[in-house]
Amino acid sequence: MPDRLTVPHYSPTKGVHPPLLSPEYGSTRLRAPSQPMTLLPQRLTEITGPLLGEGRVGPLDHDLTRQHAGEPLGQRIIVAGRVLDEDGRAIPNTLVEVWQPNAAGRYAHVWDQHPAPLDPNFTGVGRCLTDAEGHYRFITIHPGAYPWKNHLNAWRPSHIHFSLFGRSFIQRLVTQMYFPGDPLFGQDPIYNAIPDPSVRQRLVCRWSLELTEPDWALGYVWDIVLRGSTGTPWEPQERP
Amino acid sequence: MTLPLTPSQTVGPFLSVGLTWTDGPNVVPSGSEGAIRITGQVFDGAGNPAPDAMIETWQADPDGGFVHPDDPRESAKSSFRGFGRCATDDEGVFTIVTLKPGPLPTGDGRLEAPHIDVSIFARGLLDRVVTRIYFPDEVALNATDPLLTSLSEEARSTLIAVQERATFRFDIRLQGERETAFFEL
Question: How far apart (Å, rounded) are the C-alpha atoms in residues B141 and B155?
Fold first, then answer.
């Protein structure tokens, strides 16, 4: 056994995440906790987390355009990037889950009944594992914008939901990726719940000529950065 | 090198499209030896159930083991999945089938009582909120648990499940009266 054991200690989030109570986004008013939160010490349950492997991902799960008999309607796109931590270390073999509406802005969900067509060839769900360098890649169609009831004439900018596990309970992140230059940003209280415009901008992908495939699909790049860590001493104990 | 941390956004109302698994609630198969059920309801600040939420659980196995390279204990190895996820139903109810976790060393000479870490995701939550489930039949270890003993009696009482035979009831109140104690990560 080595003389000195260490475990990761994750750096604080420094106010990057949007405040839970963001009244412009009406649903936060009755759901945001009101009591001050105690800092959860980073112990074994927090520094470990589910490492969800190959068995979770089918061969076509990364390609949302090939999950049905025919091809979905809409602009075909490639969305790719890396999952990294704040120290620039790649996070390999980690599960990435995505979901989105179809090109007309409708989700394949029973509660989405707004008057836009469903697409029988599009479910809007994908998953993949990052490779050894933290790369992920999805093929899908450009999601449509859609109306919602938050305020009069409210519309969500086009977005894809992303779910990341990283390597620990602490690194878990669910977020949304947006597209560059969307005219709907200004009126969207979810995007604008992140107070700092430069932090918000981290959720916007970049169009990439390199990733775009001739005569086939537009390419967008988006890297995801999870919390970084440094080693801290661990004192071995008798097992309870 | 410091890269800019990616901020969180809400899962929205349609999370069940993308995040639910048929075996999500089964940390272990139903009927496994020693299996317990953890069930509860998620409520908003008006006392209404949240039918569009999801909870995720993460925990040690009954011997306090994790399958993870950052667990520094050579003796603690396990094949236990440890992870559960369950979307709430129309009444805001979730259920997880799992094994009761064992106690854990803190790395500075103390012991943590058996607990399960919980993330709650929902429309209206711009980031997940995190809490812990503790067990009512662990009176001695709960009394010395470093986290529980740091909380007020009121906050502590929201974290201890209520046992009904092999089922543990754990309601989550996002806001207001008897609000669940949530933790900053």
Answer: 17
How far is the C-alpha of B103 from the C-alpha of A240, rounded, in Å? 7
Secondary element (H or E) of residue B156: helix B153-157
If you count them, how many residues does chain B have?
185
Interface test with B, best of A5, A16, A44 (most B CBs within 10 A): A44
Q: Which two tokens stand for residue A176?
A: 């949304």
Nearest CB neighbour to B182, from listed A37, A85, A99? A37
Conformational region of residue B144, where left means phi above 0, alpha means psi within -120 to 50, and beta covers everything else: alpha
pLDDT digits (tens, 9 = 90+) for A107-142: 999 999 999 999 999 999 999 999 999 999 999 999
Q: What is the ipTM of this complex?
A: 0.97
* DSSP secondary structure string for all residues of B53-83: EEEEEE---TTS----TT---TT-------E
Q: Indicate the SS3 state at residue B8.
A: coil
Distances (CA, A) of A186 to A137, A156, A189, B7, B114: 29, 10, 8, 18, 47
